Amino acid sequence: MAEFRLPPIDSDPNRCERGYTGNTIGQANAVSDKLLDLRKCNYSGKNLSGKTLAGALLSETDLTNTNLTEAVLTKSYGVGAILSGADLTNAVVDRVDFSNAKLDGAKFVNAVVTGTTFDGADLTGSVWEDALIGNEDVKRLCSNPTLTGESRFQVGCRGG
User: Fold this and answer.
1) Which H helix or E strand runs over 154?
2) Band of the pLDDT at 158, cuts 50, 70, 90?
3) How far is CA 153 from CA 85, 138, 147, in A?
4) In terms of C-beta distances under 8 Å and separation of at least 24 residues, what long-range contacts does 115-119 make, across chains too?
5) Burial 5-24 (b: 16+ CB within 10 A, else e)
6) pLDDT digits (tens, 9 = 90+) for 42-57
7) What is the model's pTM?
8) What pLDDT score was predicted for residue 151?
9) Which residues, 6+ apart, have CB-to-CB distance to 112 below 8 Å?
10) How many helices (H) and strands (E) does the chain have?
């Protein structure tokens, strides 16, 4: 099997500014006019509510305490992203790879979560109240040892 490699980080000096506008077309299939490369950008504490970040490369992006309410993250690549305390209320989190991401204290209230990977992610204190979570996603989330207490109950995990 071939090694998976991302393209080099976009050299556009304004590439991080594209996060404030997002993709404008093709949100369901992550089709866009240009790759939304937001790797290593800093949006800590910023407002990205309602933005379409479909297909975005978010590796090592700092989204600490970022407002992502009603954001669309379909097919985004968030391996190693930092979303500690981020608010993803009413967001669409579809086919996102959050492997090894920091999601401690993140709020997924009433979010749609389907086909998403959380392998090695820190889910400590995350909030999943009224989230619509696919059956397979529930299984994956419940196998994460950092999903504890009330978070496990909100996701629908069986047992302690």
Assistant:
1) helix 150-155
2) confident
3) 19, 11, 10
4) 116/140, 118/144, 119/144
5) eeeeebeeeebbebbeebbe
6) 999 999 999 999 999 9
7) 0.91
8) 97
9) 91, 92, 93, 94, 131, 132
10) 2, 3
